[in-house]
Write a structure and sequence with these properties.
Elements (H helix, E strand, L loop, with lengths): L2 E4 L6 H10 L8 E4 L10 H10 L4 E3 L3 H11 L12 H4 L4 H9 L4 E4 L4 E4 L9 H17 L1 H6 L15 H14 L2 E2 L5 E2 L14 E2 L12 E4 L8 E3 L2 E3 L9 E6 L8 E4 L9
Parallel strand pairs: 1-2, 2-3, 5-9, 9-11
Antiparallel strand pairs: 1-12, 4-5, 6-7, 6-8, 10-11, 12-13
Length: about 280
């Protein structure tokens, strides 16, 4: 069995199909780990959702911020698409309820303890070890399945900006969601700044890429993530970053998780979406 990690697809269905052909994906033996953000900004979000859902147990999928945003637009009265969203086909699809239910059953993190691999969309704060990440992600997953409207209505916003074990309710869920689906930089103490979206070189003290925080509790775990297109492909410091900006005209990237020295498999984007905030 091969385990392939795949970066942010964001509605680039043609590139995903080509990538699966390039890696010679075989449903009898292979497993695909998706870093989240299956949808939005790209032209074929509906096709991507259907394709990945059909993979069933062959696909491990964590939720990204765009996946959660789709659920919010779909399930919350008054929550509208943003100007740059490309979710209309999903929202009007005849099978949309089944697709929403499938997304609601996905987690924010997947931890393979036997291999010590942690899959998240964006990253972690330095104080959380892998098992803690899995437990916190499970908290949010249970809330998302029990009362999705309440969780989704409370997830928007950038506060609190630092973890405290005493956090509870919507503030606790919001921080967990923001870290696992939106973080790029933090301080050594785990304070996050969600407004910084540029390349790592633009971070200034006390801010640093989350994976370079000293004493990071996940340092002994391989963390596989996406979300940071201006970082691009990144394989060092014990992490594997896979968002190579397919939707922005970059590439869709896959890495064989069981062949650590193997080069990534890359499909150059056919999609040309203007880069916007």
């Amino acid at each position: 069995m091969a385990r392939w990690a795949i970066g942010d697809v964001q509605g680039c269905s043609s590139e995903l199909d080509e990538l699966l052909t390039r890696i010679r994906f075989n449903a009898d033996r292979d497993q695909l780990w998706f870093t989240g953000d299956l949808v939005n900004r790209g032209p074929q979000s509906l096709a991507v959702l259907r394709r990945v859902r059909e993979l069933a147990a062959n696909a491990i999928v964590v939720l990204g911020n765009h996946d959660l945003h789709l659920l919010a637009v779909a399930l919350l009265a008054g929550r509208k698409q943003r100007r740059n969203d490309t979710l209309a086909a999903v929202l009007s699809a005849p099978d949309r309820e089944a697709l929403y239910a499938w997304l609601l059953s996905r987690s924010l993190a997947h931890y393979d303890q036997a291999r010590n691999d942690l899959l998240v969309h964006a990253g972690v704060v330095p104080q959380w070890h892998a098992r803690r990440v899995a437990l916190l992600a499970d908290e949010v997953s249970q809330a998302l399945q029990h009362d999705p409207e309440k969780l989704l209505a409370g997830m928007y916003g950038d506060e609190p900006d630092q973890w405290d074990d005493s956090l509870s309710g919507q503030a606790r869920a919001r921080f967990i969601i923001n870290v696992l689906t939106r973080i790029r930089v933090c301080t050594a103490a785990g304070r996050i700044d969600l407004k910084q979206k540029g390349p790592p070189a633009e971070a200034r003290e006390p801010w640093m890429p989350w994976f370079l925080a000293p004493g990071r509790a996940t340092a002994a775990t391989r963390v596989i993530f996406g979300h940071w297109s201006t970082l691009g492909f990144y394989r060092k410091d014990g992490v594997l970053g896979l968002d190579t900006g397919c939707v922005w005209g970059g590439a869709l990237t896959a890495v064989n998780l069981d062949e650590t020295a193997a080069p990534p498999v890359v499909v150059i984007s056919h999609t040309r979406v203007p880069l916007q905030d």
